[in-house]
Amino acid sequence: MANLTTCVDGVGDEPLARRRLFGRIARAAFGVTVIDGVAGRLAAAEQKAAAARGGVNLIYLMMRGAMSHLDTFDPKPGRDEQGETRAIQTKTPGVWFGEHLPQLAGLSDRVAVIRSLTAETGAHEQGTYAMRTSYAQLASIQHPSLGSWALHVAGKASRDLPGYVLVGNGNEHPGCGFLDPGVTPVPVADPALGLENIVRPAYLSETNFRRRLALAERIDRDFQRLHAGGQIAAYNQMYKDAVRLLGSVDLEAFDIAREPEPLRERYGTGQLGQGCLLARRLVEAGVRCVEVELGGWDMHRDIFDELPEKTAQLDAALATLLSDLGDRGLLDSTLVVLGTEFGRSPAINENAGRDHHPAVFSCLLAGAGIKGGVVHGASDARGHSPDRDAVTVADFNTTIAAAMRLPYAKEFHAPNGRPFKIGGGGTPIAAVLT
Amino acid sequence: MIRHIPQQPAVWPPRLAIVAVACLLLGADDGRRGRGGRPQSAAGLPAAVTAAPPAQVMEVAAVDRGRRDAVVVAARRIDDLLATHWREHGVQPAPRLNDEQFVRRVYLDLAGRIPTYDEVTAFVASREAAKRAALVDRLLESPDYVSHFYNFWADILRLTERPQKTLPFEPYLYYVKDSIRTNKPYDEWVHEMLTADGRLWENPAVGFQLRDFGMPLPYVDNTVRVLLGTQIGCAQCHDHPFDHWTQKQFYELAALTSGTKMRPGPQPGQEKPPAGTRRGGAGMRDPEAAAVRRLVQEVRRETERPGAVQFVLANATKVTFADRPLALPHDYQYDDAKPLEVVSPKVLWGDVPQSAATADGRARFAAWVVAHDNRQFARTIANRMWRKVMGVGLVEPVDDFRAENPASHPALLEHLTDLVYELDFDLREFVRVLVSTAGYQRRAVAYDHAAAEPFRFPGPALRRMTAEQVWDSILTLVARNPWAVQRPTPERIAAAVSIDVAHADVATVERAFDAYLAEFGPGRYQRSLQQVCGYRGQLLMRASEMPTPLPLGHFLRQFGQSDRESIEGGRTVATIPQILAMFNGPVTHAMLQPGSVIFDEVTAHRPEEAIDVVFLSILSRRPKADERRIAREEITTAEAPAVGCGNVVWGLLNTREFLFIQ
Q1: Please, where are the H alpha helices in B498-566?
Q2: What's the pTM value of the predicted model, to 2 decimals?
Q3: pLDDT tens for residues A212-233?
Q4: Is the Cβ pair A216, B553 closer than 8 Å?
Q5: A172, A222, A414: residue with CB nearest B569
Q6: Which residue of B has its CA nearest to A246?
Q7: How far is B136 from chain A (nearest CA, A)?
Q8: Tally of structural domains, chain A
Q9: CB-CB: which of A203, A220, A416 is closest to B656?
Q10: Looking at the structure, do residues A78 and A106 belong to the same domain, yes or no?
Q11: Do residue A382 and residue A408 come from a single domain?
């Protein structure tokens, strides 16, 4: 319990000082190395520098339910398949988007659109899993998601904040897969609420919190020894990370209420807009990877009634994210990805909806390592199949890995000995990489 | 020589002082005190929760005590098979559970919660012969059992109150719970759901077919996956490269049930009628469809109330069946048939039983699924229930039976399948046999699903509690009455929703809709629950009775409760928000309130018994000597004994031992 009384900096900033002190106490209680004062500041500076040198951040927007390509980034104006969604001209000559994406149309010079993605499965769960991990879902192994790979290879950029945050439902997320539980994403259910339960009840003093932690550890020792490894180890790690996080001075990164109201509105007040704003704050504070989910794209019925609102959310959130990151000089070090599990059928069904369509669909890349104003690949006239430059999910994810400067060609071995590659061993798309 | 035995610290105040100090310092009232330093009642536990539970929560079908010997015999046959398996694979079985470990495990596995202090101490002290069997029997006929197995099925059947914005599914949810309560034989239950007709509140079993409203192909996929442990979903779009199901087979199977109508008139989700068949005729002539159309048009024209049209459509939603041809998709690409060709209905394997051979397609499908010579039906549920009890299926995943994915112990799986038949699909009796095996009553062993070797069951697999088990266990420490509220009955929903579509006018619809909104409108029902058992934004009631799906940030969702959109979407993975909820969340602290079960239990005992009470209440065991020393040290050195005691409570809750089922 060394140095509890020394080096409490931030004089005059009571909560800050208290939190730092508390963080140290907690770390000491857990036997984590105590970094104090000057040494601590040096370490922090060193980490920031390391982040600036090597790390590319990732903000991944995952459109759950399968986003229709014809109605967003691959319209087929004049065809019956196009239905009620009109096409609009983008800033890039000859490139058209769906009419509900006017802001992104104005930013087309900053993004690369892939129009020839093709997936192996038309089932949501398996499709999303493949997009996140680059591999087909198996019972015998859980593959790591891209963000976990990035942390595994490049490390965290912030000491106390998590390296990977997931805005949305964590249940189906493959998380760290077979990698160390320390690279598991931290789920944030509601971006407007941020991370909940981070404030201790008023009656609970720091001293008592410390005593409680120490007690739990001592009493649990036998149990943890008996069942060492596996899920128990994952929980041990989570307890350590939670304590470290509570001691962090950067927790306000999770609080989007600190952003000016006009900016919050520009992002859009829905889950996606607020999630993108949270993602920007987190990346700024040193979180390396953020995934933001937006569900509700599974439009089997009345698609033209449901699309405008959903697509407008996407338009505002992504366009504002790109310009906000650009304004802050973060777009050079942050890769922004828009992904979805597969596309929707060109044929409009009896209920005025579109069904699942894995044969071809569109995704989008922007920011670090990506050429703007590029359209890669094309679907055929109906938007049914790739016409040229078909891109597999592995190719797409390998391109992400390449843009993030991760070693996509290297073989990593899972605990069971099987070899895996970040991105799934695809070929990076040279045409969209800088 | 005088040995100092620190039996009772001299500094401990008498019991009353503990209570007083506790209220002030540990009372978790978060500083929100009224005048005079007394805790405000608003911050306290709701009266309905601290009250004694009702004399009878629900009437559960009785367990047959006369079968106890038969259960023992059946359990022994399973143990013999396990023993052979261990010998063949050189596996050392885990140690037997002692009474404290057993009572905790069996409560969690059958009642879905940890046992109370009284339940642990009474069981351990009991000298009854066969007391374990007696406890199992008691638990299997308790409301806790119904609640826990409801949660189990809710995860599998994707039970949610509004799978469609318009449809009130509460009657179906109630029906599932009630089928468990009455211990309906599984084959009967399934057959009932597959063939049910009518409106949700008239015949709630229709919920199973309505869950995939308007999606006849995914309905078949999901049904086969859940009931027959077989995945044919890929064949919906193409022949599966690694599996032997073809797209044509998928359509042939789907053709059996594709005539299911969800409402009168044209059906949502059905492909266009095949070429050569008449279009629209039936819908136009159907007087019921005409009445619905008339009322919808009137409502749309004359009322501004959003949702009123959907309210009418909910009333029009009624499952019926009449055979209807199904055609292959327009882009069918294989040689064995042409695009848009009508397929003839056909089951995946075996035959439709003679008794149903001339019935309609849906009835043939249902009869085939539950037929006694369709062994895969019994095998799937045997494997599923084995996993429920032992933590790992003999086939994993339980819904992916394939030749390439064989059982880890085929003889045992076939034996269990026979047992399902022997017990006439009485799943509760099946579980009774499984928990009576010596194999179950062994210490849990960590299981790595990625390991090269399959799990050999030296004991059950070590599992984290499900989200519902964590919640209901914490509730056990807080609420004397966790049953303040139960799910609404179909009768209550019917009273709120039902209108006579054929004769209603717009004024009737408006009146009924307003009344419905007042009771079940957005947030209304939740608010009414808050008034009964709300505590700082949480509802202190059993997980099974709560509105569903819960919002993402809810404690249950943080701990991995399913969104009820994917089959078995529940997870037990570690995340940071779970830990933060355990550290600082309102539920953990509810138990430090006067009136909580554990608070009252501690203060009802002599101070020197407090440590035992806390350990027995939370971990279901007495402390070991060193733990007792650690806890005592904490209590005597804290700023006040009550604070120390609160720290011990919190400390035990935040152990892995609490969260995992040993």
Answers
A1: 506-520, 524-533, 555-558
A2: 0.89
A3: 999 999 999 999 999 988 899 9
A4: no
A5: A172
A6: B580
A7: 26
A8: 2
A9: A220
A10: yes
A11: yes
